[in-house]
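To whoever is covering the structure queue this week,

Two jobs came back overnight. Logging them here so there's a record in the thread.

Job A:
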Amino acid sequence: MTSLLHIRHAAACVRGGGVIACPAEAVWGLSCDPWNRGAVQQLCDMKQRPLSKGVIVASADVADFAPLLEGLSLEQRQTVLNSWPGPVTWLVPHRDFFPSWVTGESAEVAIRVTSAPALSKLCRELGGPVVTTSANWAGAQPAKHSFQVVRYFGVGVTRVPGQVNLQGRPSSIKRAITGEVIR
């Protein structure tokens, strides 16, 4: 169980420009402030992933993504809303809502309203969304356990206690405009 003290400590790390590890729906994720370029760059460096690929942004509240959903048709918006909270990430036109270090070279941004308890608590404590991407080096197996996060990134990374759904799969990624399944 994730205590309020753990959440507050992780939130302080994120506010301070740090990268933390937090259990998401099916894998551990690395998270940081999406509006802090240095933090997003550090996260991508840790993963050995180019900043140009873009990252997923998760929140506990659909209201954090309201400006992005306004650009969708009523049917598209309803499809997205019906899938949340949960392990479905949607690619939507970014409308310059998030900075380029979040969207990468894409005209879209990947967003999700999470159902993961610890990640939801973190977002609520921060009052907004965080970057979340699997806690592993690019191309390696995502971490399903806290000890795997330590194997990848060492003991120095702040970890929010909790567990993932061990039978779960990383979030699916779909394109909201076309319904295309990317992953």
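Job B:
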Amino acid sequence: MPISKELRVNERIRVSPVRLIGDAGEQLGVVPVDAALQQAREAGLDLVEVAPTASPPVCKLMDYGKFKYQQRKRDQQAKHRHAGEMKSIQLGPRTEEHDLQFKLRKAREFLARGQRVQIYVRFRGAQMRHVELGDQLLRRCVEILGDVAKMEESIKMEARRMSVTLGLKPSVGATKPAAPPAAPAAGTSGQPVSA
């Protein structure tokens, strides 16, 4: 059962009666809120309103502190999972050549790890009159990265931002570090031995 973010706990629950659910998920029936609070205290747990719009409201016996901790952990893990899926590279319409090459090297690293890359150009103020510079810059980026990347989404303009999304070409695959060359055996010159 999905639980809303803003929950009323213990004495903050003023509606009576409530449908009570035990800490193991078992139905305990419809009881007055005072009786539900008493059961929560006896069990050393909190009474948490999980479905305030239901009729009657649904409350659950749980360790609220532990629940909030686990919810924070889940939220952080979800954020890290999503952060790894797509990387962003920001450019300006007049980005210098050295900066462009540096950022495209980073884009290659992201692509080599199998991540998608969104390259975008942000326009400020009067730069909006020259959106063609951003288009040219993004097309150049696609051309430079063309050996390892393919366009997943074409160049598009949203508000003051023009972007393109790139993904790793299927034929390239994620790169693995090259193995060092084998060293010659001790006592040999590295020359082939003739019989």
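Note for Job B: The domain at 83-168 is CATH 3.30.110.10 (Translation Initiation Factor IF3).

Please reply-all if you pick these up so we don't duplicate work.
Q.
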